[in-house]
Amino acid sequence: MKFIETCAELKLTHILKYQAILYNHEMDDIIGEMIHYIESKKGKATRILTITKGLNFETGKQRLVMDFYIEMNQPTIGSNKFSYLPIYELTNCVVSKYKGHPQNASIATKEVNDYIKKHELEPISPVHQVMKIDKKTKKKEQKKNEVDLEVYIKVN
Questions:
Q1: Of 21 and 139, which is predicted with more confidence?
Q2: Which of 21, 26, 55, 132 falls 20 to 30 Å from 62 in CA-CA distance?
Q3: d(CA 112, CA 83)
Q4: For domain 4-154, which CATH number applies: 3.30.450.20, 3.40.50.300, 3.40.50.620, 3.20.80.10?
């Protein structure tokens, strides 16, 4: 693939946010619940941003410390579970884009990390993975065998 863009900016508007410590298999349920909330407020989800901030081993099993941001087409109100952000921006990023089978999506993250290492840049943010939502099906995945993903890392 080897498609890298530098000095890129990630900008999301009208965002529903959720922070969690969870197991990997729980991610789809959280995203589904967030999309359902957006649709219950007559909104439409357009992009999903996941940020893995770290790992948690308190239970003896590996859990992910994550933020979920879902961009929507209109402002909304938060709830006791989800908060609303009008805008989220990340500037001066290295970005890689990937479209294809979900099993190979980690290639985009590897490319960004390789580029940062090769050019001796200093990452100052966790990996931000942005997945576009297919407007026809309103699902997280365009097809079961295809994702449209962008990976951003802010650098110094």
A1: 21
A2: 132
A3: 30
A4: 3.20.80.10
What's the predicted TM-score (pTM) here? 0.86
Phi/psi at 58 (5° precision): -60, -35
45/100 Cα distance (integer angstroms):
21
Contacts (Cβ under 8 Å, ≥6 apart) of 46: 71, 72, 73, 132, 133, 135
**Boundaries of every domain in the chain:** 4-154
pLDDT > 70: percent of the chain = 92
Which pairing describes strands 45-56 and 4-22: parallel, antiparallel, or unpaired? unpaired
Nearest to 149 by CA among 74, 121, 14, 134: 134
Q: What whole-number distance in Å separates Cα of residue 103 and Cα of residue 4?
A: 20
